[in-house]
Amino acid sequence: MLNIKRGAKHKVTILNCGRYLQFVLLSLIFSADALAQAPSISYKTPQVYPVNIPISTLMPKNAGGAVPATIYGQVTTFAGGPNGNVFNGPTRICEDASGNVYVADRDNNEIKKVTPAGVVTVFASGFNQPNGVAIDKNGNVYVADAASNAIKQITPSGAVSIFAGGSQGSTDGKGAAASFYYPYSVAVNAAGDVYVADDGSNLIRKITPAGVVTTLAGSGFGYADGQGSAASFDSPNCVNTDAAGNIYVSDQQNNRIRKITPAGLVTTIAGNSNAGALNGNGISATFNSPSGVAVDAIGNIYVADLGNSLIRKIDVQGNVTTLAGSNTISYADGIGTAAGFYHPNDVQVDPNGFLLVDDYGNSAIRKIIITGYTIDKTLPPGLTFDPTTGIISGTPTAISSSTNYTVTAYNTSGSSSTIVDITVTATAPPPILNPPIISYQTPQVYAVNTTITALAPTNTGGAVPPNPYGQVTTFAGTGTVGSADGLGTAASFNDPRGIAVDNANNIYVADNGNNKIRKITPAGLVSTVAGSGVAGAVNGTGVNASFTNPTGLTVDAAGNIYVADSGNQLIRKITPNGAVTTYAGSGFVGVNDGTASNASFNFPNDVIVDNAGTLYVSDYVNDEIRKVTTTGTVSTLAGTPAIGSADGTGSSASFYNPAGLTFDASGNIIVADADNELIRKVTPVGVVTTIAGDGTKGANDGTAKASNFRYPEGVTYDASGNLYIADTFNSLIRKMDPAGNVTTFAGVADVSGLKNGDRLSANFNAPFGIVADHNGNLYISDEANFAIREIALTGYTIDKPLPAGLVFDNTTGIISGTPTVTSPATNYTITAYNTSGSGSAVVNITVLAAGFSFPAIPAKTMCSADFDPGATGGSGTYTYTSSNTAVATIVAGMIHIVGPGTSIITANDGSGPQTQTLTVNPYVIPSISISPDTYSSCQGLSVTYTATAVNGGVNPTYQWNVNGQPAGTNSASFTSTTLNTGDIITCTLTNNSDCTQGPVTSNNATITASPYVTPALKIQNITSNSVPAGTDITFTATPTNGGTNPSYQWQVNGASVGTDGPVFTSNCFNDGDIVTCILTNAGGACLTTLTATSNPIAVTITNSLAVSITASATTVYAGTPVTFTATSSINPVVYQWMVNNKNVGVSSSNFITTTLHNGDVVTCTVMLASGCSVSAVSNPIVITIMLTADIAIPNAFTPNGDGINDLWDIPALANFPNCIVNIYNRYGILLYNSRGYSKPWDGNYNGSKLPVSTYYYVIDLGGKSPKLSGYITLIR
After folding, report:
1. Is the pTM of this model over 0.70?
2. Rounded CA gap, 601 and 621, in Å?
3. Which architecture characterizes domain 927-1010 according to CATH?
4. Do the domains at 927-1010 and 1107-1186 have one common CATH topology?
5. Where are the NHL repeats (predicted)?
6. pLDDT tens, 1225-1248?
């Protein structure tokens, strides 16, 4: 793992098998933040979908690093293929920083180079079975040339040399003094050290940059971990280094992956002696002749499993999985196991998110993508998973039970997995339920002994189940000790303690005294999930397993049950099919953290699981809250093995026998701290606070910390955020609302029993566990009653008794009956509860003495018709009066509305007056304003006006008008393309639902609609139409409709020149150049086009620039100086000489060279010295180089002093002043040596005449010319 300091700039080296890669971590490439940003994904779960109905797209939420839109595990062919036309037995690969791939093409004895575009060329040749290849930071390529027993180096220019070795053996030493035995692989680390898998010697060797060879590890054939020579290997096939300098080895014949520290300590990472393809952890997995090995930046290891034709992956936890391949020899692109390989020999990690694979048997280089998304199993039919985005979509076509799907996201910095639970049902899932919103018509005035009309609540929120809120019943259990399964009260328990609920509302009970885990369906059917009833710690399925006094339990989203097996000091797991295993704990009393099997507990009391699968355990006697991760690591979150009640963080906090646990809505852990008589809260990072209880024993209600408890052992939350507490030794169920007020919810303090009924009259006996299901019910494991109790949390409540004779129905909220006594006006608070929350309303009720009834008068409007005031009963004859005739009058016994306001209406039937208040609401005054999306436009363009209505009512009518004429549709917006400048737009609003005085009209809106114009441009030459070369010429531009801020782009022959302005001056012209200008109106409106191109003007140059060249000779021998001279028509100029169109020489009218070749073409380009681009190219001169075959060499001469042919004269050698002439006798003795041949040989040796004979000559002309040799006869 790389440790990068935030905000710093870093140079990071990544080394893989045969790979050296450097890059600077800048924000645009690989920032420190991005490096640490593995994905962090989650889905909304669970999901319940109805069959045959398209689902809403389910997308992952990613709080971490971005995930590339690629398909994880997709295999493609990068280069080559089974036809063998490109490669022949490729064995190893490496990659440089530019993405070029180098291939050890063994059977072709070549090193090939593959560009990122897949173009293959020969980089170097002349090897003898090159098996390994690696590259260093300088671009030097190292080759394990196996049959040569040498490590060779190829420079970036392609020069090949022996770096070390060259003979068979295992001798350490420097360079050629060292020896190797069939070296099979090489790798380079950041320091430039080369590591060699010396296959035949079964050693791992190291070569320093200076070429010094040492043995890092191994002692010959065998298998042993250890330090340096204490370790042994069997055909180590590949080496690889990571960023920390560790070396990884594919130990082929041992079927293992090994690791060597920089100090030489050898360990085994994965695999065992058995050949196979088993996935698993570490040495439980198997390989079959593993060959290539590579490591990515976060420590995942990839293996070319040659014998299995698979690509395997070893994650940082040591888990071995199959990444790609079908475990059969084949050649197929595809995804994961749908792809096929033929003895893959090497792998290479590319930092861009893919693997390179040397597919040896298929003679191909393959690519595997290692970023994107995966899912662990097939979704229900009709649903699809997009591996590039992680999106689940489609239409389910078949019913599917609740199933957990593990989705994993990968990027180059790591991976993230999450679980989404999906169920497909036969019918649509129930709609999301809102809390109730209730109201009553109030106030109500009733008469004694007169039956009232039933008063029902109006509910505009979520429905309220018809349950008697707070009713306590016995859900299961006989009330006596037993272990019988059965329905409801026919079943029996023995000290039921922990209690939990699953997603289907099944209840699970830790039946402590029976050593069993029991299940109760929503219908009340009790069965045994696991446990034989005999104390023990046997794993197994169902009743074949055993527990010892299980105390707490929880259920995860997948239906797995986790049990605090207190008497065994273990945490056990029960799968949905009943298989029981030990999840954590050694079985010994202790307080050790560590791996699951090494950790220890002391009477674990309760356990809960979060959405990520992490367990939290109340370690009762250890007085700690423990944490168990999904990887089996046990740690202490809070507390210390010492009794106390201190708040604080981690071990600075203390508990005294912590018991029941639950989560609040924020993911905090709520703890029933039993012996401290407190309720505590623990944050996910271990911060402990006290949220309820004063620490003394008692049953006092009150604010959170003013209340007290007596050994609380169970806690749970309902949907409204109320916390319920099993107050065990008080035999009470307590409730703390979100504001922190603690009340007694059910039971009678200090009264124990098994009494059902209303919550405040019911009795419990040592309630232990407590849980709320998803249907609004509370379940309590009533330990000493040996029963499971149920309390309904849905229905209605009223805060005080109604007047005598009236009845409140707590299942419907209806008030009915016949009042029997008078009662003053009283407010009654009624609360409705459903599974999503609660809602309250107040109703005011008055009961008067017997007589007539005059109910409240509903509010009226100015549009209300005359109506009966509403008195009933009594004598049946009523008189009415109005206290405010400006509001209402009485007309023929009816109320007639006059104006807005209030008036007291008095009714009297002769027994006395009664009054009610009439409220008349005024007219609703609507208003409307309109505004356009633009106040000016171009003729024909769309303009939209939007109306904003105030008091428009439920279904208003809009009438748009243009210049007083109707236009548009009945809509709050109006769009037109036919408006003209000066048009007046209005909109009339009519409120169709309220009491108003008529339509209203908006403000006037006007528009300016401008016509379109076309820009144009004319240019002229104001200097002269004909000038000498290099003379300034000025052009001017005159625009039409150019706008307020036009821009100009001058062009010569279509190429942009000059500056942004209407004037352009330049002296850089050739004869016939065409000058134009492009006008851009950037700020104008209503344009047919933004740009206009001017008329063209041709430039006439009277004396154009020209150049000619001459040569001192055009036919010469190689190496002979040739002088070229250039003559320009205009001066001063800059000269550029060229040979075969490549620049040579300096800026001079003369160019002298001795390096020409036959057929070379020499030219000269001149440019005006002013720096402008006017130029001319000379005539070409072709050079002929005479071949050495033209050198006439005599085969005999007669040095007898007669003045004829006395010297061995070779005139042509005068053209080769650096030649070397050697003459030998028949015995190979050098007789004559001359550098240059200015003085021909006279037939003498050391001043003495040589005898007549035949002599042998060798003439080295120098350069690349071949040597000349032959025989010469000396005749006297």
Report:
1. no
2. 8
3. Sandwich (2.60)
4. yes
5. 81-117, 127-157, 493-523, 547-577
6. 988 899 999 998 989 999 999 989
